[in-house]
Amino acid sequence: VQLVESGGGLVQPGGSLRLSCAASGFAFALSRYIVRWYRQTPGKERELVATITSTGGATTYLDSVKGRFTISRDNVKNMVYLQMNSLTPADTAVYYCHAASNWGQGTQVTVAS
């Protein structure tokens, strides 16, 4: 089982990106699990950015991203998303999704002018 993130890139401050997390592997139903997005910058510990329950009925966010980031999921497509708006250089990091003890390889988000 592997989680695969995509959607990262270089964006100017104030811009937006949407990250996607997909599960590959035999019969892994991402829809069954709580999914979390984390981020990490060099020399720092990985920090939890957002969480969504298996049904999508509840979400939580890191204080610094509240009102700017939205985590969502499409259980039919077996996907989880992180919509990131009003990005700042402080959001620059490698973003990872996590579910059922599995991690993706990460996707780089760079916010710079």
Uncertain parts: none
Number of strands: 11
Per the principal axes of the C-alpha atoms, what is the gross shape? globular
Q: H/E element string?
A: EEEEEEEEEEE
The mean pLDDT is 94
Describe the structure.
- This protein is mainly beta and 113 residues long.
- The protein is built from no helices and 11 strands.
Task: Supply the key terms.
11 strands; 4-stranded antiparallel β-sheet; mainly beta; globular; 113 residues; 7-stranded mixed β-sheet; single chain
Note the topology:
Elements: E1 2-6, E2 9-11, E3 17-24, E4 35-40, E5 47-52, E6 59-61, E7 69-74, E8 79-84, E9 93-99, E10 102-103, E11 107-111
Parallel strand pairs: 2-11
Antiparallel strand pairs: 1-3, 3-8, 4-5, 4-9, 5-6, 7-8, 9-10, 9-11
Entry summary:
This protein has strands at 2-6, 9-11, 17-24, 35-40, 47-52, 59-61, 69-74, 79-84, 93-99, 102-103, 107-111.
